[in-house]
Amino acid sequence: MDYENKLVLAPMVRIGTLPFRLLAAQYGADITYGEEIIDHKMVKLLTQYGAIITFEVGVINYVLVECKRGRNEYLGSVDFVEKGTNNVVFRTCDQERNQVVFQMGTSDAVRALTAAKIVCKDVAAVDINMGCPKSFSVSGGMGAALLSKPELIHDILTTLKRNLNVPVTCKIRLLKSPQDTVELARRIEKTGVAALAVHGRKVADRPRDPAKWSEIADIVAALSIPVIANGDVFEYDDFQRIKIATGASSVMVARGALWNASIFSPEGRLHWEDVKKEYVRKSILWDNDIKSTKHTLKDIIMHYSCLELPEGKAVNKSETLADLAKLYGEEKYYHFVNENRVLLKSIYFDQRCHQNHLLVKFTTYCKHLFIQGGFLVANY
Ligand SMILES: Cc1cc2nc3c(=O)[nH]c(=O)nc-3n(C[C@H](O)[C@H](O)[C@H](O)COP(=O)(O)O)c2cc1C
Q1: Does residue 13 line the site of ligand 1, with CB under 6 A?
Q2: Structure confidence at residue 6 (pLDDT)
Q3: Domain coordinates of the chain in residue numbers?
Q4: Measuring CA to CA, which residue among 215, 238, 236 is closest to residue 227?
Q5: pTM for the complete prediction?
Q6: In ligand 1, which atom is closest to the CA atom of 257?
Q7: Does 186 have pLDDT greater than 70?
Q8: Which of 146, 228, 238, 247 qualifies as a cystine partner to 197, CB 3.0-4.6 A?
Q9: Which residues form the active site (predicted)?
Q10: Nearest residue CA, atom 20 of ligand 1?
Q11: Could you tell me the distance, in angstroms and rounded to a whole number, from the CA of residue 17 to the centre of ligand 1?
Q12: CA 251/CA 248 separation, integer angstroms
């Protein structure tokens, strides 16, 4: 993975699922971070039987339950599914294999490595979130809590770096003084990370406080690894502005992309209503989780309009992707995608039963063009 001159979609909880990442990539994002996933979601210690590894802690026998990786033949995706609940914790696909970053929340090197090993063959890089100020993260010793524990940072990053074959990075916030941030960044660089993303705000700062690009510049000047600058990029021209102001190798954008993912397009932004519709179609195509789809739509609507208006209320009331398809006039598309999924899956399985590998390969290829390409379906 190359971190020079890249436009990067920032990690965003409940937003950065597969459809949103592909949307950003379609408009020009080079690297797309997934939403933060807590390592506990990938690996669990349970006091029950029937799992992969058992070991003793004190007098109790624990089992390590890992998320199961599988190809979803319906969608053409790779799913990591929580055992027991069958909830999809992380969904990706071959199309984004070389640009998707798996971001993780962790407070423990061994657990982080166990979780990262489950996904590392399907992603371009693994990143550790060291900036989240939310109490859920900090109280669990994750996110911004790590910023005051350089030994633990070192432990986590070196453990991942030594044992994974993909680049390892982390994303930090600014510390109280520029000197402290630079010192921490230097320690992080020594762990061998491939790049460092810096959100130019301090832990106590609010999103409305201006990002401190000059303090990102101090870090860039002190390091030789690529720095990814993040904070207050709202227009395409801001990519260049922040690069010049900080000297950073690459630029990461969160809210600017959430509100209009076509921010990455050098040809200029599309109308947000069109981008939103494209997001709905991609959510249908990849059978995105309804809660996350609604959450993303509500964030977009709140920015441009108001949730109390009819569209916002209708999104709130929607219970399924079919409801959203109806709301956005995408019913034909919804039925087309779902009917053809069933058809392609049945051909695929039929042929697999006959063990005709060439036919299976051909059908998989057609399916790839047909379903994953999205454009064929989207133009329907
Ligand atoms: C809705 C939302 C969710 C976020 N979730 C994450 C996350 O999962 N991991 C993370 O490191 N930062 C997360 N952030 C922080 C952003 O990645 C980014 O650092 C911050 O918003 C500053 O960038 P911006 O000024 O371009 O918005 C989130 C931000 C937003 C707005």
Answers
A1: yes
A2: 98
A3: 7-264, 272-378
A4: 215
A5: 0.91
A6: 26
A7: yes
A8: 228
A9: 132 (proton donor)
A10: 254
A11: 14
A12: 7
